[in-house]
Amino acid sequence: MDVTPLIPEGLQLIEAYGDGAFRITGVRYQGAVFVFPDETQIWQQASVEDLTAATLAPVTDRQTVPEILLLGTGARTEFILPSIRAEVREKGPVVDIMDTGAACRTYNVLLAEGRRVAAALLPVD
């Protein structure tokens, strides 16, 4: 039985991650990325320690703000300051923090369910 989620054509599906990169809908991206249902953007983010609400502005400043932001923090889950989460939440999305692998899988499931989701993903070596 095929359990691959049915994703409408044209949406950004995370196919693979590792070696410091991601493969999203057939395109390889080196380094950190923002993934939205309709596009993927390079994210100039090096680490969780440098994260601020301003570095997440490409998510919160969109015309249609996602309801959920999955924050993939690399090989392991690393938490951010509650004040950053609160500032992002004021602009719309709930921030759900997890390791990058879990964030990739969760993004694909939520995308298949038709949810307004985005992912901010730090790479895994």
Summarize the model shown.
Strand 2 and strand 3 form a beta hairpin. 21% of the residues lie in helices and 27% in strands.
Task: Give an overview of the whole structure.
By secondary structure, this protein is an alpha/beta fold. The chain has 3 helices and 8 strands. It has helices spanning 57-60, 82-90, 100-112; strands spanning 14-18, 21-24, 27-30, 33-35, 40-42, 68-72, 94-98, 117-121. A hairpin with a 2-residue loop joins strand 1 and strand 2 (21-24).
Tell me the β content. 25-35%
* Helix-strand pattern: EEEEEHEHEHE
Alpha carbon gyration radius: 13 Å
End-to-end CA span: 32 Å
Mean pLDDT: 94
Shape: globular
Q: Give me the count of strands.
A: 8
The amount of helix comes to: 10-25%
Main sheet characteristics? 5 strands, mixed
Structural class: alpha/beta
Question: Low-confidence runs (pLDDT<50, min 5 residues)?
Answer: none
